[in-house]
Specification:
It contains 13 helices and 19 strands. With about 425 residues, the protein is α+β, with helices and mostly antiparallel strands. Strands 1, 2, 8, 9, 10, 11, 17 and 18 form an 8-stranded mixed beta sheet that branches. The radius of gyration is 22 Å and the shape is globular. The site of P-hydroxybenzoic acid has 10 residues, from loops. InterPro entries: FAD-bd, FAD/NAD-bd_sf, PheA/TfdB_FAD_monoxygenase.
């Protein structure tokens, strides 16, 4: 059977794949999007929910944030508890007005799919790409259950261990770290909304309470690496959350547990995000722990940059390959900045592995000191606040999107 042809094959319809496909299609580039999951599965997968300022500004400029900004909430404060103190970090004020948006990732994905389809795009759901290989003339051949697809470029946006990365000569290997603990993840009904992200630095391990919607919250509990979720009954999870987070009368309480799991805590950055016309974006290029809520944000940022780089490459601007190498260089640097931010926050939120009980208070005091430092106005507070909330603009390649950029400036003072 003769393979279908397209210009850019996008593997994975998560936030990275959808933002990329959208940008390319809008610029008149032919795109084929393949997604392993069915549409219902994809739109029901609960994940992140905290979006950086600059990511939302970018989505706004593309007309992709209407529902997000109508239904999402702005958050500019988080709380970090340690040794019985609850310290408010008013990062909105410390950063000079930069705040997050809280909006569930699956809602954003649903909006992006709807927008893509409104523009006339189609997505092949339930259609995994089985393999990716070079096909002469620099083209790429993708094999799917529905037959072959010949593309000029293939972009892996399908998460870690994807087929596009597997087609790199070294499998897109790169430095990685397995942390000595895991996070039990819980999606739970709550009796009142989570007003601010709450981190608990606790002698028995970190706990977190994060906003999602008015009646659902995301909770985390540090557990030993390799822990099995089956060993945590609902009652034990709830009791441990209440204890470590010191949930009192005015706080939300986890009720029915809608979803539980264990997140293996690791960081990883592929050594290369590009091999010829094979490209990686989002989790396919790097894995960041949830600490700091950077995964979804950096996935959108990769895609936003890659749109401009691919357009430049297609137009032959600056000589073959330059634009795509530029993408790789900028996003590798960004990935390491993100890892460093996430890792530094992890260090604050966890006690060193194997610390004997009699030394824990000392370690907690050091952490409380640092919490106070980032909560205080001054250079350290401002630096943390700006990095945390994603100040500034996404550093996107080239001039894309040209017209909308001006529109952002005039609208960014709004809600
Ligand atoms: C989350 O919303 O899941 C979240 C938010 C902030 C973090 C980590 C996780 O630092």
């Amino acid at each position: 059977m003769t393979p279908r042809t397209t210009t850019v094959a996008v593997v994975g319809a998560g936030p990275a794949g959808l933002v990329l496909a959208h940008g390319l299609r809008r610029a008149g580039v032919e795109v084929a999007v393949h997604e392993r999951l069915s549409r219902a599965e994809l739109e029901a997968t609960a994940r992140a929910g905290v979006l950086e300022h600059r990511v939302v500004e970018h989505l706004r400029a593309l007309g992709l944030a209407d529902r997000l900004t109508a239904e999402g909430e702005r958050h500019g404060r988080c709380e970090i508890s340690c040794l019985g103190e609850r310290v408010v970090v008013d990062y909105g004020a410390l950063s000079g007005g930069v705040r997050h948006w809280v909006y569930p990732q699956q809602s954003l994905v649903r909006d992006l799919i709807a927008a893509y389809e409104r523009d006339g795009g189609t997505i092949a759901f339930g259609s995994p790409v089985e393999s990716v290989a070079p096909d002469g003339d620099g083209a790429v051949l993708l094999r799917t259950a529905a037959g072959g697809l010949r593309a000029r470029y293939a972009v892996g946006c399908e998460g870690a261990h994807g087929v596009v990365a597997a087609a790199f000569p070294d499998g897109a290997a790169g430095p990685q770290r397995r942390y000595p603990y895991d996070w039990l993840t819980v999606l739970a009904r709550i009796d009142r909304p989570v007003a601010a992200v709450r981190y608990a630095v606790h002698a028995d391990g970190f706990a977190g309470m994060m906003p999602r919607t008015a009646d659902v919250g995301r909770f985390y509990l540090e557990v030993p690496a390799g822990e099995r979720v089956e060993d945590w009954a609902a009652g034990r999870i709830r009791a441990e959350l209440v204890r470590r987070l010191d949930l009192g009368g005015g706080d939300p309480r986890p009720g029915e547990l809608l979803e539980t799991g264990v997140l293996r805590m690791r960081g990883r950055v592929a050594g290369r995000f590009r091999h010829g016309r094979l490209l990686l974006a989002g989790d396919a290029a790097h894995t960041v722990t949830p600490s700091g809520a950077k995964g979804l944000n950096s996935a959108v940022a990769d895609a936003a940059d890659l749109v401009g780089a691919l357009l430049a490459d297609l137009r032959g601007a600056g000589g073959a390959g330059d634009a795509l190498d530029g993408y790789q260089q900028r996003r590798l640097e960004a990935a390491w900045r993100t890892q460093e931010f996430s890792d530094r926050l992890l260090e604050l939120l966890h006690l060193p592995a194997g610390l004997p009980p009699e030394q824990r208070e000392f370690a907690l005091r050091l952490r409380l000191e640092r919490i106070h430092r980032i909560a205080r106005p001054g250079p350290e507070g401002a630096e943390f606040a700006r990095a945390y909330a994603g100040a500034g603009e996404l550093p996107v390649a080239g001039v894309w999107p040209p017209a909308q950029r001006t529109a952002v400036a005039s609208r960014s003072t709004g809600r």
